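Journal club prep — side note

Before the paper discussion, L.F. wants everyone to see what a predicted structure for a comparable chain looks like in token form. Sequence:
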Amino acid sequence: MPSPSALLLGLALATCTLATTRAAEFPFPEATIDDLQTRMAAGTLTARTLTAAYLQRIADIDRAGPKLNAVIELNPDALATADSLDAERKAGRVRGPLHGIPILIKDNIDTTDRMATTAGSLALVGAKPQRDAHLISRLRAAGAVILGKTNLSEWANYRGNNSSSGWSGRGGQTKNPYALDRSPSGSSSGSAAAVAANLCVIAIGTETNGSIMSPASANGIVGVKPTVGLVSRAGIIPIAASQDTAGPMTRTVRDAALVLAAIAGPDVRDDATTHIPPELTTALQAPAAARALRGARIGVVRGPFGFHARMDPMLSALVATLRAAGAEVIAPVKIPTLGAFNAAQS
């Protein structure tokens, strides 16, 4: 008869093998927009196949298994949208880099499909917006497949000071896919966890003060908080008009740039968008060029350096890349106190 230790070792090995097998079954791990567009252009992948794979992935590890609770609602029309976009591609029309790409949307952003917009609150269950948020209209026009809505800190963390990051009355507690007992941060918790766990290619989050950047950091992805006005705030449940904005949450910087180019632009419903120089939006849509950052002044806060042997070289390489692209790098930028930092954000 095997010893108890041998049985435990066998069980552990079997569990690891099963987990590895399940992970290998997902056909698009860490896929980027460019990867998927190359396959669709070659005819080896369709938007329907891609969308169905992400829906199955959500069923496997968000609804079951570790139950990440990153997705609060699925779009019942996602596959139909994918079929329509496949038909367009077959007819020779490709709208751009987001054509056929599944995307998840934070549940404080209005969509006029058969999904509610609730900000995670039970008080708004069943609430159906009358029109898309401006950024959603732009995503649809770009050919993205709206896969569903993501969980969040309820009311984008405006429910209360002691509320848990990533918890909402409607969606429960979002889990960090890298460590289920650790905080996913918030308030765009579901969007960050979904991208990290390969529940979608890309996601949209919103930020007033840290709600994109903090969960992006906690879940190991890329998050961008655009300048207020670069992306319209119309159709987003607000907290502070002076700071609110939506932004991309992705696995790579290039994917973030592609999404930002799609959602940025003027909107008559948001006066802040009229104050953004048109050339900035145009530049987002242009191919990257040598010395593309010429004229930009970028400050580097040195406080985060010197604490992590693996991250420090990456940060230094980033600064070198910015300089090589033509940016004037101001380093170090010193923030003397937490009070001064908070004052700069208000």
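L.F.'s comment for the group: The mean pLDDT is 91. Keep this in mind when we get to the figures.
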